[in-house]
From TrEMBL:
Signal peptide: none annotated. The keyword rRNA-binding does not apply. Keywords: Hydrolase. This is Alpha/beta hydrolase. It holds the Pfam family Abhydrolase_6. One of its GO terms (molecular function) is hydrolase activity. Residues 3-219 form the AB hydrolase-1 domain. It comes from the Bacteria. Transmembrane segments: none annotated.
Amino acid sequence: MDILLIAGLWLDGSAWDDVVAALRSLGHRPVPLTLPGQGDGSTSATLDDQVATVLAAVDAASGKPVVVGHSAACSLAWLAADARPDKISEVVLVGGFPASDGKPYADFFELRDGVMPFPGWAPFEGPDSADLDEEARRAFDAAAIPVPGDVATGVVRLTDERRFDVPVMVICPEFSPAQAKEWIDAGDVPELARVKHLDFVDIDSGHWPMHTRPAELARLLAAAATA
């Protein structure tokens, strides 16, 4: 099965390299996406440009793909489900949750010269980054791509309630399934509260399991595709 892989902020498609290799060995066709403004040299890309890239990959897939979003890109995966509810077999959310209609995509950090650079490790100290050693952190820093401001501040627009019919798996790295359920029950993630088929899976990692637990992450994605 085709498995579309959308990395979060500051990452391009190469973030999935180790997961891609493992998924291929398991018999699937992984498709890592490099988004406009995150790997193609553009700083003027918009959120709409990134959504269009994801939808083009959905439309080009063989059959009904699994769409995987990591971190902020969970919203991109969910926007794909909203725009193509009949063409996606499942959405997998890794370490994040979809924004609601009318909310900014990812205005989490300061913009500088029209882009949102990686803010350093201070905001991610603790469970997010505990499994990244100094070498891994330096490699991340060196590869981090500033996110265009019009992507980070773009407004999420959701229009088709059939998105709630698309099965969703939440892979929980730096937080537990119990915590995720608590947040949803408390009303903090209103989009997932309305999903009809919602599953939770734990993975023992920080926020970037594609770097620290790629084989295990691939097995979970393969299980979602098989289901």
